[in-house]
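Re: magnesium ion structure - here you go.
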Amino acid sequence: MPADLPRIRVGQGFDVHPFAADPDRPLVLGGLRFPGRGLAGHSDADPVAHAVTDALLGAAGLGDIGQHFPDTDPALAGADSIELLRRAVADVRRAGWEPQNVDCTVVLEAPKLAPRRDEMQRRLAEAVGAPVTVKGKRAEGLGALGRAEGIACLAVALVVAR
Ligand code: MG
């Protein structure tokens, strides 16, 4: 890492996926399976894992998730996004940064996250190697998210020089 860079950096991530037309597609949020129709996307379409990945990559100055894991790569079809997050964290560490914490806001009408929040936080934290906090937030009927046409997630990540 160049000596003139700061020792701590912050990164932001955002992701959104629409619900899939296929009623049998599994719903995956923060690495957990939920009942109900899943989200459309090339991988498992987990917007929480994707936003966390982008926040960490951004903090480390390593571009974005699309560069690392292109949605044109047949090998990534249906991919476990927690595994992609693990790979991104390894890249972050190789670039000289250690994740300190990540905080997420998941924007969704349903399902309710609170009953599984601790489990989700543990799953994400295990992949990141640092605490990850998750909050659920409804869009109060406004726009596509408020009409429950998809689920979005915002994340911020802090990294320090190793
Ligand atoms: Mg995504």
